Amino acid sequence: MASLLHRKLLVLTGKGGVGKTTVSAALGLLAADRGLRTIVVEVGEQRRLAELFGVRSEDAGAETELRQNLWSISIDPDRALLEWLQSLGGRVSGRVLASSGTFQYFAAAAPGAKELVSMVKIWKLTQGERGGRKRPSDYDLVILDGPATGHALGMLHSPQTFGAIARVWPIASQTKQVGELLADPARSAYLAVALPTEMAVTEALELQDGLRRQIDRSLDAVIVNGTLPRRFSAAELTRVESLNASDSVTRSATLAARAVHSRASFQHNQVARLRRRRFEVLPVPFLFTSELDLPAIERIAEHLSKQLS
User: Fold this and answer.
1) pTM of the model
2) Homologous superfamily, domain 2-223
3) Can you tell me the mean pLDDT for 229-245?
């Protein structure tokens, strides 16, 4: 699995609320610590990584240095589409274009346009292109902190969805190259992030089916976030429950042990569902902390480092 960090693009997605940004940040830290110039891409008007690292970002669309070898950028699909149309419209200002009925109609009527121009911007990061200049050494790794599963699949399928229009417009060659990047196992990898719950694991399985159907790819790994360890064997739990529970403290401790054991067993059963499908599973332990701050992200990166060494 070490080769994961030696692709040009890692795409992370999964059910909403499973910790995609947390895992993306941890992988970014890990790659940066290994000397790889890395950028983590957020989609939408998000600047969570800059906030997490305590770095001020003046522009959501700007590349922001977080620490040595690590950057972040936020790509807003609406803004990306507007910038692209403005480049075609010459002197038409962005303000005028954004307020025009033509732009609103195009944005609604052209399937996959916003997703495609977002993917083109991501592809350019893998090529070292910024501001029309090519700098091949800029980034060794681009990590896409993707939206939830359905929207992420829409982004990944956009070269095909928008292809009929793109064939006759200047974006045609870039559309082809985006598609080639997404289809190439040597340059791109797909990671599902899931909690060890039935719904999140089911969505990871559905993501696998969607990847195969839409771009003929498979998940390279599933990162299961927030897993609890098995603290007791069945025999140990039996001995705990056989203790004299006449006092409230012992009785409460016994009930807590049973609850923790049951929850951990349920989680490991969900992980087993993934392993039965022959997925590479990378568990991330549950962190008993009041908030997922930067030190917590560093602990997750350290844990993933052991599995990706």
Assistant:
1) 0.88
2) P-loop containing nucleotide triphosphate hydrolases (3.40.50.300)
3) 75
